[in-house]
Amino acid sequence: MKVVNQDEFNKLMKEDAVLVDFFATWCGPCKMLSPLLESMASEYEGRCQFVKVDVDQEPDLAGQFGIMAVPTVILFKNGKQAASFAGYQAKPQVQQWLDSHLA
């Protein structure tokens, strides 16, 4: 999954569906969630784009979306925030959450 900056993020908002993982390099739960999302990115290719934002590198972007805890995952559809969750979730829960919002 690509780590994006503010400019890249803004360009991505033109896509149909983008899942953004707001993370920090020092965050244990982030390190657990990352490989799960990496594996899902290929499974959802063509339906949803997966990217990451490092909250320490992009504090303005994190602030813009009120990120208070990491990891926080936000699904954007057509540039609008459609759904989110914070904290670690197991793959079946993340898949169910994503499927329900992509349908």
From TrEMBL:
InterPro entries: Thioredoxin (IPR005746), Thioredoxin-like_sf (IPR036249), Thioredoxin_CS (IPR017937), Thioredoxin_domain (IPR013766). Residues 1-103 form the Thioredoxin domain. It holds the Pfam family Thioredoxin. The keyword ATP-binding does not apply. The keyword ATP-binding does not apply. The record marks 28-29 as: Contributes to redox potential value. The record marks 21 as: Deprotonates C-terminal active site Cys. The active site is at residues 27, 30. Keywords: Disulfide bond, Electron transport, Redox-active center, Transport. One of its GO terms (cellular component) is cytoplasm. Belongs to the thioredoxin family. NCBIfam families: thioredoxin. This is Thioredoxin.
